[in-house]
Amino acid sequence: MNDKLKTISNLFEGNEIRSIWDSEKEEYYFSIIDVIRVLTESKNPNDYWYRLKTRMTNEEKSELSTKCRQLKLKSKDGKYRETDTLDTKGILRLIESVPSPKAEPFKMWLANIGSERIDEVFNPEIAINRAVNYYRNKGYSDEWIKARLTGIVDRFKLTDIWKEGGVEKPLEYALLTNEIYKGWSGMKASEYKELKGLRKESLRDNMTDIEVALTNIGEIVTRDIARQEHPQGNKKICNF
Fold it and tell me: 39-85, pLDDT tens digit by residue?
């Protein structure tokens, strides 16, 4: 586990929320106490957290308990202590459970996100437009965006062939994808992300034109081979 600390102060009005990156799970874990302190302005957030758990339903307790992890975070005195943490999804569920006026903007944000996703079910073009606008705002050219969207479709063509052979588990996809990356870079996808200093960011979105071209060629070649060899899941996963 990488113990590099990170804050999400921009989401909490400049208040520091301690967090830690788990490179194995590829998730950030945030301090529950820090979030509660900001949302409730409680002088004793540990006590508030305890009382909040007693008011939760058994289902809520079960959901949070399975996600809650005790990880060592740096305290004000500079020492690292075991601290209750939750991943991003868990923290958002926690915010929904906090009866505080400061939690309302987050709850409204979550409601808007849910509403937008429902609209996209009825009109998928909304999701495409959102992606295009996101990339434009990040400074990508329209030519790059077009190539990126085409690459996504091509990736689906490849995974469809894998599915036909019974390759469906995330681990199986990861192993096959790693073989493609190792073919042109000598590294697994996760190793290449680490080389670029990426965490949850998309690897493809941070590639040069040459890197994208090599990846696309690797997937096209793999797709052609897969059509002939019919890769299978489980033990035969890499036999293609």
Answer: 888 889 999 888 888 887 777 777 777 788 999 998 888 899 999 99
Q: What is the pLDDT of residues 92-151, one digit of tens each?
A: 888 888 888 888 888 887 788 889 889 999 999 999 999 999 999 999 999 989 988 988
Predicted pLDDT of residue 136: 95
Residue pair 59/116 in contact by the 8 Å Cβ criterion: no
pLDDT tens profile 162-218: 888 777 777 788 888 888 889 888 999 888 988 998 888 889 899 888 888 888 888
Query: Residue type at 28?
Result: Y
Q: Which two tokens stand for residue 196?
A: 């670029």
3-state secondary structure the chain: CEEEEECCHHHCCCCCCCEEEECCCCEEEEEHHHHHHHHHCCCCHHHHHHHHHHHCCHHHHHHHHHHCEEEEEECCCCCEEEEEEEEHHHHHHHHHHCCCHHHHHHHHHHHHHHHHHHHHHHCCHHHHHHHHHHHHHCCCCHHHHHHHHHHHHHHHHHHHHHHHCCCCCHHHHHHHHHHHHHHHHCCCHHHHHHHCCCCCCCCHHHCCHHHHHHHHHHHHHHHHHHHHHCCCCHHHCCCC
Q: Which residue has the tokens 């202590």?
A: 81
Q: What pLDDT sits at residue 3?
A: 39
Calpha distance 29→24 (Å, rounded): 12
Nearest C-alpha neighbor of 105 from the set 55, 39, 10: 39
